[in-house]
Amino acid sequence: MFMDDVAVVSFSCYRESVAKAFDEIRAGGVLADQSKILIKPNLVDDLPFPVTTPVDCIEAIIDYVRSVSGAEIIVAEGSGGDKSTGEVFTALGYTRLAEDKQVRLVDLNEETLVRSEIPSCKILSEYFIPKIALEYFIISVPVLKAHSFSEVTLSLKNMMGFAPPSHYQEGGFWKKSFFHNRIHESIIEMNMHRMPDLTLIDATVGMPDSHLGGRQCSPPVNKIIASYDALEADRAGAGLLGFDWKNVAHLADNHPLHS
User: Fold this and answer.
1) How many domains does the chain fold into?
2) Per-residue pLDDT for 1 more than 80?
3) Domain with 168 in it: what CATH number?
4) Cα-flanking dihedrals φ and ψ of residue 62, to 5°?
5) Domain limits at 41?
6) How far apart are CA 146 and CA 156, in angstroms?
7) Is-above-0.85 flag for pTM?
8) How confident is residue 3, by pLDDT bands cut at 50, 70 and 90?
9) How far apart are CA 189 and CA 171, in angstroms?
């Protein structure tokens, strides 16, 4: 079914449900036109699914892309916790996936940066972002979770993985801590600099209380969400978690990402 321009499909298995969600938004033709595709899971730390995006979901996306496109595929993340991105990749099975599927893993925390300027931004009028974010078609692949600071953490917040610790770590071990004091505004503004081109939310389980642990949705949500519009995908995801997106500041009406 569609919710505006968002496909929300029931989950059977990753291979079938990812393909169905992408087919519903006619992703095949769009992906066929790409030469470079970056798949961005949510691997905030080395905690297993449903805190982080499972390799089975990413594998299904890789297989779908390869069925329609000859594009180069990379899987990229910049971990936020005290573990290095490489350690997280290994702990969660991504190193093995990369070997099996012959894709390159990229640590966004260590990539060459470019400077982006949007004078109208209040927090990030100047933003440093990995150069590859501007060179690749980005597929954002978060899991469905509430968040202690931002209410929900879905596709738009998943773009925080691109923010380099060299510029956005402020004390402690949390590598993206700069954003926490004004997190809703930060999420909006980092996406003004670079939004995902395509979103697929793994909403097969769902975490309704917190982003690093705690209660799981019971029964599991059992959905896959896909859209070219990350904002609308996140609004649909928030609804599946029981949130009214109009009360989530970075998803609310009169949104600059739709202006």
Assistant:
1) 1
2) no
3) 3.40.50.11440
4) -55, -45
5) 2-258
6) 13
7) yes
8) very low
9) 22
